[in-house]
Design goal:
Belongs to the short-chain dehydrogenases/reductases (SDR) family. The protein is an alpha/beta fold and 265 residues long. The protein has one domain: NAD(P)-binding Rossmann-like Domain (Rossmann fold), CATH 3.40.50. It contains 9 helices and 7 strands, in the order βαβαβαβαβαβααβαα. Helix 1 (16-27) packs across helix 7 (215-228) and helix 8 crosses helix 9 (250-264).
């Protein structure tokens, strides 16, 4: 898909990968609705992009917010062509993670994708085209040391993107799934000092596994993949080798991950 002249919604667009995607889309002559839970951040990104972007604040997992973002896009620019389900949450830990945090992770990292697809895909099928880009994580293909909710929900996000591609790919709906390792965002490196021991372990595991990329570098790779209509987007090429090793000998891979976890202590 050539994004020039297309209308896109980017969730979690107030910074990080989402903010970089909004900038990259506008640079490619697309129109963008920037959504974020943080109104000031969303406004800041949209203001920097001029008339090619507008902002709306809200919860990316809320049906009402998703509908409001779609209606804003339609009234300002026209029908939505691309939806970047990019908002994510990295909080959580091990078996002591409470039910409220599990619910939040499931809502933001998974159900937000399902609800957005439910809102847009039927219209795209009728129109014969549309593009859904899911931001998952390398944790969705491998795992995430130190964070059970993140690992589980990112696996689920990959599974939903696969299902969506298989089920509606022949209807003209294109689907890509972004699975990076370390990206220099607040999710990886919070600005405050409130990180728990599990979160610090997660950060150390990610930072030592490979290069930490800038959001701008990831956004450029995403738009290249969209142009090619490629499903699996791997900004870190080594993730594919890791994924193959996992599938080739699961038990050996698990033993290796336990050794890696011990080395981080």
């Amino acid at each position: 898909m050539d994004v020039a002249g297309k209308v896109a919604i980017v969730t979690g667009g107030g910074g990080g990968i989402g903010g970089a995607l909004a900038h990259a889309l506008v640079e490619a002559d697309a129109k963008v609705v920037v959504t974020d839970l943080d109104a000031a951040s969303a406004d800041s990104v949209a203001d920097a992009l001029g008339d090619s972007a507008v902002a709306i604040a809200g919860d990316a997992s809320s049906d009402d917010h998703i509908d409001a973002a779609v209606r804003l896009a339609e009234s300002t620019f026209g029908p939505v062509d691309l939806y970047f389900a990019n908002a994510g949450i990295g909080r959580g830990g091990g078996l002591d993670t409470d039910e409220a945090m599990w619910d939040l992770a499931l809502d933001v990292n998974l159900r937000s994708h399902i609800r957005a697809a439910r809102r847009l895909v039927p219209e795209w099928v009728e129109r014969g085209g549309g593009y859904f880009v899911s931001t998952a994580s390398a944790a969705g293909l491998l795992t995430q040391i130190g964070n059970a909710p993140y690992s589980v929900t990112k696996h689920a996000a990959v599974g939903f993107a696969e299902w969506l591609n298989i089920t509606h790919g022949d209807d003209g709906v294109r689907v890509s799934c972004l699975c990076p390792m370390g990206v220099d965002t607040k999710l990886l490196r919070p600005e405050d000092d409130s990180a728990t021991p599990d979160q610090k372990l997660m950060q150390k595991a990610v930072e030592t596994a490979g290069e930490v990329l800038t959001p701008g570098a990831v956004a450029a790779i995403v738009l290249e993949a969209v142009a090619d209509e490629r499903f699996l987007i791997l900004p870190h090429a080594e993730v594919l080798d890791m994924y193959r090793q996992k599938g080739a000998d699961y038990d050996r891979w698990l033993r290796g991950m336990r050794r890696y976890q011990r080395s981080l202590a």
